[in-house]
């Protein structure tokens, strides 16, 4: 029952694939459980603007501006967020 | 309702300035307690206003009211069980949308709400103006504007609280959030629950319904226990949930959260006006440096260094001022204790002095902690902590730790001497339970300040030529070993603990308030003193008995008595031609003089830095009180010198005699027996029974001269000197021995104070025992490996050092490569772009 | 035999638990003139630990070492009073150093 998903269609990627300086609008938050909760707590909702500010000195985690506010999350967690560029 | 005491709770998201509001209202009169069974602490305080007494509880900061974290559960439980008269929801005006997310949930929970719109000054700087009236109208709630850090809005808030209380608000029927397509189901479910409730529900049924659709575990449990036919309810909920998901490609939970978000967005649009466009804030500019690839770590290192310099080194300087105070305290008590004989001290004297020394050893830490906690409070308030976690998280994660483990490990002592007590206290902020416990357990392995003199001594004797190298070795080996241990712990013991997401807010920097910092510092220091002091006193007494009983037998005492007589006779014969001879006719005259002379010296010493006037007064008073012997104390002239010299000799001889007696007592005591008992095992680490006793006693019976320092430096029995002994490798202590000992000391289980902190932060004595037990095993194993392995391979001390270091590094590196346990989360498998699911 | 073993282990563990107040190790050092041309320094730590074995040094104002040694088993160190201005250094490791100026030493 899964949707066939073609990457590149409509510029949809996951948050962990975005590079510093890139913008986007959140399409969907796929995380469930406690990670999903946390992401929502900090404002990761469909329609919200995100902007990748920088990666940490050791690459992970990444600092993101969500809806105007700064948040840092690990790439592992960012991959659940689908973003439209 | 009107004349009862009011209970008000403060709720809000982290970084909303809630604590500042709390301080503003209570003016510092507060009391911190741990919620039973929890590691989260609750602050309560009180204030009076308009002739009413109001008690205030500061609930933990939470983003939401799910049941995932302890903070959230406690907040919910408090509101449900304690039914506070009012809940003041503190909000950050510059982030209204996100904070409203919590507000809605509080309303749904049925909490009588008052909004404290805080940090309006910061909002203004960011170009955001919030219309408090509009907000109030939209929420149907009273709204008070405040700037907690500047104390603005204090009276208005207090007025607002009283007013809200008097007007008896009822919000249960206030539905601000429209859950769209889910609304009908919520209503249906609420009706169902109404019918099947066993007794009147403490929670609003609408809230319960919503929570059930959110698949909230605690809500599910509540239904099972308080409602008839819970199966029905459960089936209904699952049915609706799966239908919903099929139809909307989203869980009800996600949908519910989204609707809240939309509602918040709508309200924000109506109440917030953007007055200017601020694209790059000061915070952004600072972060460009602080979080950058090169400067970030450098700045971090700089801050660590500063932290040490100011607190440990600076605080240490301050302890020099504490010392005279504490000695004064000791001297004051000493005066009242009985004197005893030349050879034996009365029990009460020894015991009391012993306990006082232990008490002093705790009190002396106060200046260090005050400074340290103040500095940490500053770092916290400024907002640097998430940045610290940001920089180091990747490294720590490999070992099962967390970016926020940075501070605790630093405090415990990386490279230089630290203290495990504040280190363990600092683990409180780590949300991830697995990482927090791992951090708590490895902080004691770090370089504690008290271990430094031992390292120094051993190095100066056995690694004299490579001092710097050896010092570097022992300082750095601890963090390497600690990381490895953390990894092993998270793979084994802590394997099944839940992991939390890392998602962290990076709040804008802001200047801390002096008052906030000072109060936190005092609060934490006081907590430490209070908790530790009582236990330490009990321990000191217990230790005293273990090291003095069973005491030396009659026969041996007689031998000592004979020596004592000799010493006394030598003294009296030397002074018989002086006018002082008459003073020492009786045996007890000698003993009395010894004690008084010691007393004189101690009291004089405590006045070392005092004014001349005070010193003179002291001399006068002493002369009056001890008029018969005072002239002897400063006797001059030929006779005076003779007395002095003879006295000094006697004093020294007596000290040596007493030391021998103490040593013998120690060896025959319970402690001594323990040392001998352990020898068969410790032998492989190169520790003979004397070393065991020294180890045990260096920590337990500090006054004993058989402290590790002494026994390694001089063992009088063979009459050999250190140098001679070092030549005979078999009998004596070799550098390899020393290395094994140093490694064992590095791992040595934490002091009592730390163990107490572990119990508090980890939530149980079980953890304290683990924190005590595993280092013993680890230390013994490593020491044994080093000594036996090194001996078998024929390595010298220095070679052993290199080999051990290399092995430790490699082990840590390899362990870091091992993948951690699987992340627990449900993933929407269908739509995740063909990526590997759940396999990290 | 078994009971002795259990007792012994219990004892050892309880001692470890009860021990460990090794804590604030503020170094202490006091020096006195002995009236016969020598000076005695007594050392210790604020928690009562003995300071025997700790390195002692007496230096002049140019940092040249005049006397060197260690605290003896009674935590004392005696040396001849130097003719020149001097300082006494009690060195128990980094962060555990006490320096005493010669001119501050009295009876």
From TrEMBL, chain A:
Keyword vocabulary terms for this entry: Iron
Molecular-function GO term, any one? transition metal ion binding
Using the record's annotation, list all stretches that form the Ferrous iron transporter FeoA-like domain: 13-85
Name the chain's protein. Ferrous iron transporter FeoA-like domain-containing protein
* Species per Swiss-Prot/TrEMBL record: bioreactor metagenome
């Amino acid at each position: 029952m899964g949707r066939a998903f073609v990457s590149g269609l409509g510029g949809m990627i996951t948050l962990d694939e975005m590079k510093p300086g890139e913008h986007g609008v959140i399409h969907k938050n796929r995380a469930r459980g406690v990670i999903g909760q946390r992401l929502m707590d900090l404002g990761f909702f469909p329609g919200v603007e995100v902007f990748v500010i920088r990666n940490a000195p050791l690459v992970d985690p990444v600092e993101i501006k969500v809806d105007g506010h700064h948040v840092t999350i690990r790439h592992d967690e960012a991959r659940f967020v689908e973003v439209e560029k | 309702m009107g004349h009862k005491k009011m209970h008000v709770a403060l709720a809000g998201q982290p970084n909303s300035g809630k604590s500042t509001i709390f301080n503003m209202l209570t003016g510092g009169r507060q009391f911190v307690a741990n919620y039973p069974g929890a590691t989260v602490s609750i602050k309560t305080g009180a204030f009076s206003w308009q002739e009413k007494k109001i008690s205030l509880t500061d609930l933990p900061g939470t983003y939401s009211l799910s049941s995932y974290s302890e903070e959230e559960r406690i907040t919910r439980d408090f509101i449900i069980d304690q039914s506070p008269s009012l809940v003041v929801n503190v909000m950050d005006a510059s982030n209204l949308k996100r904070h409203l997310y919590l507000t809605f949930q509080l309303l749904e929970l049925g909490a009588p709400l008052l909004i404290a719109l805080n940090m309006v000054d910061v909002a203004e700087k960011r170009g955001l103006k919030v219309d408090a009236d509009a907000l109030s109208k939209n929420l149907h709630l009273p709204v008070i504007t405040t700037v907690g850090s500047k104390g603005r809005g204090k009276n208005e808030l207090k007025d607002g609280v009283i007013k809200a209380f008097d007007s008896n608000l009822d919000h249960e029927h206030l539905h601000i959030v429209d859950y769209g397509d889910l609304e009908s189901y919520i209503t249906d479910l609420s009706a169902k629950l109404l019918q099947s409730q066993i007794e009147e529900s403490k929670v609003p049924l609408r809230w319960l319904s919503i929570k059930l659709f959110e698949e909230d575990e605690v809500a599910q449990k509540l239904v099972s226990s308080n409602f008839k036919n819970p199966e029905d309810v459960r089936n209904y909920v699952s049915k609706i949930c799966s239908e919903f998901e099929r139809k909307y490609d989203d869980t009800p939970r996600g949908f519910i959260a989204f609707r809240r978000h939309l509602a918040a967005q709508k309200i924000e649009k109506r109440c917030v006006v953007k007055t200017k466009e601020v694209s790059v804030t000061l915070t952004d500019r600072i972060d460009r440096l602080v979080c950058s690839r090169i400067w970030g770590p450098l700045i971090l290192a700089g801050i660590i260094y500063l932290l040490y310099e100011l607190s440990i080194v600076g605080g240490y300087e301050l302890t020099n001022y504490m010392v005279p105070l504490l000695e004064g305290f000791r001297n004051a008590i000493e005066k009242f204790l009985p004197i005893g004989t030349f050879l034996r001290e009365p029990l009460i004297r020894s015991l009391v002095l012993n306990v006082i020394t232990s008490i002093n050893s705790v009190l002396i830490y106060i200046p260090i902690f005050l400074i340290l906690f103040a500095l940490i409070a500053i770092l916290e308030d400024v907002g640097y902590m998430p940045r610290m976690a940001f920089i180091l998280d990747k490294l720590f994660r490999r070992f099962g730790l967390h970016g926020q483990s940075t501070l605790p490990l630093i405090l415990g002592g990386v490279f230089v001497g630290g203290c495990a007590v504040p280190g363990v206290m600092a683990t409180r902020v780590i949300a991830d339970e697995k990482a927090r416990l791992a951090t708590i357990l490895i902080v004691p392995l770090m370089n504690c300040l008290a271990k430094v003199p031992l390292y120094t001594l051993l190095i100066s004797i056995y690694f004299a030529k490579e001092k710097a190298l050896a010092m570097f070795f022992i300082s750095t080996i601890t963090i390497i070993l600690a990381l490895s241990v953390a990894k092993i712990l998270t793979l084994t013991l802590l394997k099944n603990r839940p992991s939390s997401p890392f998602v962290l807010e990076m709040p804008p920097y802001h200047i801390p308030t002096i008052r906030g910092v000072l109060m936190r510092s005092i609060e934490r220091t006081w907590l430490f003193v209070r908790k530790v002091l009582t236990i330490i006193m009990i321990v000191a007494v217990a230790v005293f008995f273990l090291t003095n009983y069973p005491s030396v037998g009659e026969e041996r005492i007689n031998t000592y008595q004979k020596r004592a007589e000799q010493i006394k006779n030598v003294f009296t014969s030397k002074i018989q031609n002086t006018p002082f001879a008459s003073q020492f006719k009786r045996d007890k005259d000698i003993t009395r003089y010894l004690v008084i002379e010691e007393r004189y010296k101690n009291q004089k010493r405590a006045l070392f830095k005092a004014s001349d006037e005070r010193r003179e007064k002291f001399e006068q008073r002493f002369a009056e009180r001890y008029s018969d012997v005072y002239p002897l104390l400063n006797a001059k002239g030929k006779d005076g010198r003779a007395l002095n010299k003879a006295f000094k000799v006697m004093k020294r001889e007596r000290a040596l005699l007493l030391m021998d007696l103490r040593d013998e007592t120690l060896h025959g005591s319970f402690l001594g027996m323990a040392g001998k008992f352990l020898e068969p095992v410790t032998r492989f680490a190169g520790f003979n029974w004397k070393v065991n006793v020294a180890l045990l006693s260096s920590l337990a019976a500090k006054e004993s001269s058989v402290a590790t320092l002494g026994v390694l430096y001089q063992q009088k029995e063979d009459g050999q000197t250190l140098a001679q002994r070092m030549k005979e490798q078999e009998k004596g202590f070799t550098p390899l021995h020393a290395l094994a000992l140093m490694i064992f000391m590095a791992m040595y289980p934490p002091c009592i104070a730390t163990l107490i902190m572990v119990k508090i932060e980890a939530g149980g004595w079980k953890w304290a025992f683990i924190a005590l037990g595993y280092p013993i095993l680890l230390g013994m194993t490593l020491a044994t490996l080093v000594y036996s392995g090194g001996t078998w391979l024929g390595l010298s001390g220095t070679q052993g050092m290199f080999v051990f270091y290399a092995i430790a590094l490699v082990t840590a590196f390899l362990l870091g490569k091992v993948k951690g346990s699987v992340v627990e989360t449900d993933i929407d498998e269908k739509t995740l772009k063909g990526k590997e699911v759940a396999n990290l | 035999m078994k009971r002795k073993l259990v007792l012994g282990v219990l004892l050892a563990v309880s001692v470890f638990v009860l021990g460990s107040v090794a804590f604030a190790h503020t170094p202490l050092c006091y020096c006195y003139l002995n009236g016969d041309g020598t000076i005695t320094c007594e050392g210790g730590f604020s928690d009562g630990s003995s300071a025997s074995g700790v390195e002692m040094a007496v230096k002049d104002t140019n940092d040249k070492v005049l006397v060197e040694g260690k605290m003896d088993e009674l935590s004392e160190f005696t040396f001849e009073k130097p003719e020149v201005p001097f300082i006494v250094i009690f060195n128990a490791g980094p962060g555990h150093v006490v320096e005493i100026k010669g001119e501050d030493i009295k009876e």
